[in-house]
Amino acid sequence: MARIGIFGAGWVGLVTGVCFAELGHDVVIRDVVAEKVDALSRGEVPFHEEDVPQLLEKNRDRLTFTLDPEDVVGCELLFVCVDTPPTYSGDADLSRVWSVVEELPALPGRPVLVMKSTVPVGTGAKVRAGLDARGLAHVGYVSNPEFLAEGRAVQDFMHPDRVVVGAFEPSDAEAVAVLYEPLDAPIVRCDVNSAEMIKLAANAFLMTRISFINEIANVCEATGADVVRVAEGVGLDHRLGPYFLKAGIGYGGSCFPKDSLALKQLASNSGYHFQLLSAVIEVNELQKRRVIGKLKRHLGSLSKRKIALLGLAFKPNTDDMREAPSIVLASRLLAEGADVRGWDPVADGRALPRGVEIAGSVLEAVDGADAAVIVTEWPELRDLAREEVRRAMANPLIVDGRNLLDPVEVRAAGFAYEGIGRPVSPTDVFPETAEPELDPERQR
Ligand code: UGA
Q1: If we measure between CA atoms, which residue out of 70, 76, 68, 79 comes closest to residue 7?
Q2: Same domain, yes or no, for 210 and 146?
């Protein structure tokens, strides 16, 4: 079993740490924030991620949290799991990566520095030079990007589709590859630049699929097709596959928006205009705003209208609101003069603009509302189209931003319904207006 050091006790660092501990390794996790280190040492996880608290509890004996970089001395592998947020120019901010390199203590033997953070192509070569300049030429370097999705990170770690190991020296690659052997996944061994690009390309491709299906959804709306059926029919082609073809109100989160900007910027820094990626980003921005148009079509002016935003996290099973579509929607609605009430089962809504009221329950959120918008597909919202909700609302309109509900059932329950890329019923616009009697005389 190895002794593993991890720099950064954020989401990636902690998931990586508890999973390696679960595989039997001794893990030292170092962070610069004292409160975080203290809380983790007490067994408290500072964010919502399935299975992490249990694995932390179960492997307490193999996990150490510390502020002191000297505590990683003796570790054979040193994982870098610090964040790389975008700067104003869209480049990735690597200052935390460089802090780790600067703070590395004198290290005996041949430990390997392993980059898990998402970094621009070329970073490994620069870090290699930085290590050499610091007299740490004996420290190996490997790029081992993470492909974990929030809400299912432990499962993704334990059952990866592949493990990517990019190295300058084959022996360094080997030292990292053996760690993953028990997971029985394909290991892609390559050069460091290619490993860095695999991560950026994989995320860009996933985002491209989302923006693609969102544009198909928009064309479906214009032509009367149903994007849910279309995605099903398209996804059954084995060359295309069913994944990341769910139309909605756009992607958010701590990775996609930042990584798309970083790749776009990386390309343009190198003299290449990445046209397709620019369109993917723009489509996503416009997609978040289309809900406003849908609401206006039903309600006219949104001034003084009460709108419930149901689901605030950027996706279900997380409390993460970074770049969540709910933030853009709330801001646009406030700008239109609407009264906005938000609800989420775990996200606290602090990231929302001032002026949004937070409700403690779905019923409280929809009370007196002119429309309810499903922003995040939480399972708790599956039975939204029920009698007590309809009675509580001033106007029973559901805009389903994630195509969570069955339009036929929702309409049968007395609601007006609009999804994303799904046929609109002519009666939806005025749900409370009875069908006019047809006068056979006038028909002639
Ligand atoms: C994403 C990738 O899926 C991970 O592989 C990657 O490791 C991670 O970024 C990262 O770079 O660290 P994550 O951001 O946690 O993971 O979430 P996803 O499940 O990929 O969802 C991202 C966004 O896309 C969400 O807002 C989701 O609602 C949206 N989405 C996803 C769609 O709109 N449609 C889909 O079909 C799938």
Answers
A1: 79
A2: no
